[in-house]
Design a protein that fits this description.
The protein is built from three helices and two strands; from the N terminus they run ββααα. By secondary structure, it is mainly α. It has a domain of 39 residues. The longest helix has 26 residues. The protein is elongated. The termini are far apart.
Length: 118
């Protein structure tokens, strides 16, 4: 199946486009597109299909490795330099750690106050 809006190709003609969500007109569902053989994956950078084993997309020409995709996305993202320096690439990790620390601190403070009787 090939999307009319974004040209993404996928196997299940019963579903909407997995890339842009375009609604598939059930009356126009026909035989699978000859360009899609079912033995590929979506490009990491564009909606083209890349056959298994290919290292480069034939549409955009970019290398299909996760490390390359992560480097490209992290250079355009707004993640903090300090967060990356300590191994956190998302702010959620820092927030969860801060909440856990503050909870432990509050419990410890309450415990020691109960011992002292203040």
């Amino acid at each position: 199946m090939k999307c009319k809006r974004c040209s993404t190709q996928w196997e299940n003609p019963e579903s909407n486009c997995p890339y842009c969500g375009e609604v598939v007109d059930r009356a126009e569902v026909s035989a699978p597109d000859s360009l899609y053989s079912g033995a590929g994956v979506l490009c990491l950078y564009c909606p083209a299909m890349v056959p298994h084993g290919n290292q480069f997309c034939s549409s955009c020409g970019r290398e299909q490795t996760r490390t390359q995709a992560r480097k490209a996305s992290s250079s355009t993202s707004s993640s903090s330099v300090a967060g990356e320096a300590i191994g956190w690439t998302c702010g959620g990790c820092a927030v969860v750690s801060l909440i856990a620390f503050l909870t432990i601190l509050a419990v410890a403070t309450a415990f020691f106050k109960s011992l002292v009787g203040a």
